[in-house]
Design goal:
Bound molecules: guanosine-5'-triphosphate, magnesium ion
CATH class of the largest domain: Alpha Beta
Number of strands: 15
CATH topology of the largest domain: Rossmann fold
Largest sheet: 7 strands, mixed
CATH architecture of the largest domain: 3-Layer(aba) Sandwich
Number of helices: 8
Radius of gyration: 27 Å
Length: 377
């Protein structure tokens, strides 16, 4: 190099010429994070999750070869997930760039990614209780959890066109949009949903836990508007005094948004636990749908079929399990149609898996209770 070029290189402010790309890595793989700088005369430091990277012998290998800087990580494991930053520095300045590394777990729950057979099985489903016309599901959970969106999504799947936002609220209002005990049929299948006002932390706001418990037992008629001032009771002229198995709820679905579980108020959690305890007492099966999974995991946002390989999703499911006391195998992460215009088979399959589960649970409840009724008669 001639002397002028050398002098120019010495005064060059260090900059990255290429950036570190984000990486999606399978467990067990070796991988390299690499980028190019404009000058060799730099010191390089690597950080992971905002802290200086502690290089472990046989695990990490950092290199600087000419203008190429790299970090090799061997045998990727869950702990390697995170944001990596590389900084180059010289007497003339510094530059840094970052990349996100996501580790894909071995798939830990399998889903059938073809919707047609699942839809046709559900369309030909026969309820096991003689006098039960339809299986009834009640969705409950905090304001804006995605309860109405679940109904929209399931209706879209069965009816073949979309119901985007016809009954959903904006995520920003903070107050529940659904005020009525409204019944929603799904296509031509014998399944109906009830969607109740979101639970709010203030005791006098949102739906009362007593109202939800009355609905579970079958005392609340269709289209009843919940009153914030007082829960429904026998004195109310709409109260169903002697509900039959047809008036009852056959499966309770708690709905929790994955991106808000950490911030959920303890009072709302307590209300949900009370409702779950009442359902347990009545023998009503219960599951939890964890919505808005795309908001917590980029890998899932890009490809729903990767959901059961995501550590983020598993962590959020564990958090739901711990906070609400629901076993992990009763938790189903789902994504709703919210902005997708076209139908998305993977999104539908994920929802159909969860839906098939609640159909079977509700049917078992109906079967058991109609048998018991027969024995009493
Ligand atoms: N990105 C994303 N957004 C979702 C998903 N599910 C619901 N949403 C959005 O979240 C917001 C709230 O959804 P709703 O279905 O209205 O929630 P809700 O539980 O019925 O709310 P209330 O009736 O007010 O208690 C809406 O803006 C939805 O579009 C999801 O899986 N992913
Ligand atoms: Mg709603």
């Amino acid at each position: 190099m001639d002397i002028h070029k050398m002098l120019a290189a010495m005064h060059l402010k260090p900059e990255f010429v290429t950036v570190l790309p984000d990486r999606l890595v399978k467990t067990g793989q070796d991988f390299i994070l690499r980028c190019e700088t404009n000058t060799e005369r730099v010191n390089v430091t690597w950080m992971k999750k905002g802290q200086k990277l502690c290089c472990v012998e046989g695990k990490h290998k950092t290199e600087k070869n000419g203008t190429t800087v790299s970090l090799e990580i061997k045998n990727a494991e869950v702990g390697d997930e995170g944001n990596y930053t590389v900084t180059i520095q010289s007497s003339t300045g510094s530059d840094s760039c970052s990349a996100m590394v996501i580790i894909e777990l071995e798939e830990w729950r399998t889903v059938q990614w073809m919707q047609a057979p699942m839809i046709s099985t559900l369309k030909s489903f026969k309820i096991s209780g003689e006098n039960v016309r339809e299986l009834r599901f009640l969705l409950y959970g905090p304001v804006g959890a995605g309860k109405s969106s679940i109904i929209n999504t399931i209706k879209s799947i069965f009816e073949g066109h979309q119901f985007i936002n016809c009954l959903t609220a904006s995520a920003v209002t903070g107050e529940s949009f659904t005020k009525k005990f409204e019944k929603y049929n799904v296509g031509n299948v014998p399944f109906t949903f009830y969607d109740v006002m979101g639970l709010e932390k203030d005791k006098l706001k949102g739906v009362h836990t007593e109202d939800i418990i009355s609905a579970l037992k079958g005392h609340v008629p269709n289209d009843y508007t919940f009153k914030e001032c007082a829960p429904i009771d026998e004195d109310n002229r709409y109260y169903i005094l002697k509900p039959t198995l047809n008036d009852q709820i056959h499966c309770l679905v708690s709905v929790i948004p994955a991106d808000k579980i950490s911030m959920m108020d303890e009072e709302v959690i307590q209300k949900m636990k009370e409702i779950r305890a009442a359902a347990s007492k009545l023998g009503i099966p219960q599951v939890l749908f964890m919505t808005r999974v795309d908001q917590v995991c980029t890998m899932t946002q890009q490809d729903v079929a990767k959901i059961y390989q995501s550590k983020k999703i598993k962590d959020k499911m564990m958090e739901c399990s711990n906070r609400l006391g629901v076993p992990l195998n009763c938790i189903f992460p789902v994504k709703n149609y919210s902005e997708e215009i076209k139908s998305d088979e993977k999104l539908s399959c994920l929802m159909l898996e969860a839906f098939t589960q609640i159909v079977h649970s509700a049917n078992d409840f109906v079967k058991k209770n109609s048998n018991e009724k027969k024995r009493v008669e």
